[in-house]
Amino acid sequence: MNEQPPLDEPTAPDARTTPGDREPLRIEHRPNGVTVLTFSRPATRNPMTARLTAQWRQAMRSLRRTPELRAVVITGTGPAFCSGADLGELADRHGQDLPDARDRLSDFYRTWLAVRDLPVPTVAAVNGHAVGAGLALALACDLRYAAAEARLGAPFVHLGLHPGMATTALLAEAVGPARARELLLTGRLISGARAAALGMVHEALPAGQVLRAALDTADEIAAAAPLAVRLTKSGLAQGQLTVEQALTWEGLAQAVTTTTDDFREGVRARRERRRPRFTGA
Q: Which of 49, 201, 236, 240 has the largest CB neighbor count within 10 A?
């Protein structure tokens, strides 16, 4: 599969966009504790501009302080999930001193990868193309669903760039080191269907079904016991544990959950053959 990244022509801003729709990030808080973050600059394929990055930073800070949060879904509008860093802004800083460039990029990476620090599961609904840092953002989420016809990849080498935003680690975590080498060294773009076959995403679906699948999964998570979910995510975030390390962690985390009202509610609901009503207590 020698698929090369397409050379996309710049697009003009969408003249039909109303002033109230021009913010690049839309935030929707649903009653069940699921928050949906939507990139809303479809005419330019949802790039990570300075404005969007600032909004993202504030959103991550706010969500970390939201006790009723149960899950987060991230998606885009139009033909793209996210086209990655704004190349115009990046090119404008050409020739910047190396220490300054390193610090600025490090701040950019850490701002976007703060999604990994959220205490609840995150679900990427990759509705369309996810390229470069846009792919890294999807890979940083706990779960990923993609449009079968979407294009995913990290074509940094075709721009004269080394990969950024921990793509070397995140891609290897998703597809294994050998496939990661193939994709990063060629800069190849692959379809959502191929990405699912490689394990880069959990499932590939028709574009119109991607967000619904992500929301259904988030709703399932939101219906579970919040502390149990958060501790499970924390345990999984520790990486590949040995059996002894897992026993140590689980002995503590499961003991904590047995003291909660939610555990007692879960047992009662099982005995009464009904859905549990978890409160987080």
A: 201
